[in-house]
Request: fold
Amino acid sequence: MAERYRGIRPAFGYPACPDHLPKRRLFALLGAEEAGITLTENLAMMPAASVSGIYIQHPQARYFAIGTITRDQVDSYAERMGMPVDEIERWLAPNLAYEPEAAAV
Reply:
């Protein structure tokens, strides 16, 4: 019999939550390494068959994707994360509404 469920199962790195960075906090909070799950430098989970997500249970919950992210949103997010803007831009590159400026050499 097929399972019937209502709701969505978004995960960091997917359209509803495109930023992988919160995985670091999630893994620390859950003690993922004690369970044998680690993150690569690009925040992919190892072993590769590992999964994580945010589980929302509500009859009216729907899957959604965010629009593109503007520079002012990136600036604000970088400040809240305590990280440089260029690093945030690197992590969110596919979702940016602008082309990041090349780093000064």
